[in-house]
Amino acid sequence: MMNLLHLKYVIEVAKAGSISKAANNLYMNQPHLSKTIKDLEENMQIIIFERTSKGVVPTKKGAEFIERAKSIIMQVDEMEAMYHSYDDKSIHLDICVPRASYIANAFTNYLSMINLKDKNIKVNYRETNSFETIKEVYEGDANIGIIRFFEDEKNYFINLLKTKELEYEEIHQFNYQLLVSNDNPLAYKEKISLNDLNNQIEITHGDISLPSLPLVAANCNDKTRQAKKQITIYERGIQFELLNRLPHTYMWVSPIPQEILIRYNLKTKICQDNSTTCYDFLINRKGYRISKEDQGFINEIKHSFNRDII
């Protein structure tokens, strides 16, 4: 007889693309998992997976079954969370967001307002790209997410969200700005163009966590790109230190809270060559019940726009 555990097995096999890999991930014996999947297929009278030399792939009927299984598991998880996890002694947050100081600041502010002492705390805060965020929210590994995209990508992402049956809300619209230290000569220049950046060093993040450049920067000619001075980093903590210690450096950033600019002796400047609009959308699964922790974090983000985002 099929049970919820069997559905989780099927989902893991589909995710791993291999029964042996799925068995390792589930900490179980491969022959037992293989037999369980085979028994389930016989019981349901469908072939869920096609076996190949490289692993397994879902059949057409199998793909339908897997999607229904995911939906069932999500509903059960949300029901359990509703009645067990979200009590006065629990703090639970699972979110995926782009790399953005205003979001990180709102997250920190929200947690600082909660009395965390003697609480059961389970908080996952992940910075990643929009496609990964959509995947995490759709598959239930994150409850809410924030995605970021450029103006000419808006229709594509909205259609993708509708296809995944994800609910969405625009929470921020902005142009990328230049972030420099107060010791950088650009900090006191009234108008800044891309040409002013030729002798500056750009600090960029080397991963794919977000669309890190405004489109105007990506459209520079090859000569400009080849001549560009660049420092690539792979962790957030060093970025402000580099800006301060190396006064001829800059970063492209979304708007930053005033308190952070003051704390790190920084300033944001507008580049007149950049008029490309970016959007941040809040997303969640259709039918997902926003928890009090989710709502508290969302409220803090929205309040920050009226308080200290410049």
Can you offer a commentary on this structure?
The chain is of the alpha/beta class. It has twelve helices and twelve strands. The protein has a five-stranded mixed sheet with strand order 4-3-5-12-6, with helices on both faces. Strands 9-8-10-7-11 form a five-stranded mixed sheet. Helix 1 crosses helix 2, helix 1 (4-16) packs across helix 4 (60-85) and helix 5 (101-112) packs across helix 12 (292-307). It starts with a helix and ends with a helix.
Q: Percentage of helical residues?
A: 40-55%
Residue windows where pLDDT falls under 50 for at least 5 positions: 209-227
- Which range does the strand content fall in? 15-25%
* Largest sheet, strands/sense/barrel: 5 strands, mixed
Query: How many beta-strand segments?
Result: 12
Global morphology: elongated
Taking the alpha carbons of the first and last residues, their distance comes to 59 Å
- What is the string of SSEs from the N terminus onward? HHHEEHEHEHEHEEEHHEHEHEEH
Radius of gyration: 23 Å
Quaternary state of this entry equals single chain
Per DSSP, the total helix count is 12
Secondary structure category: alpha/beta
Could you report the average pLDDT, rounded to the nearest whole number? Answer: 86
Task: Going across the biggest sheet, name each strand in turn.
Answer: 4-3-5-12-6
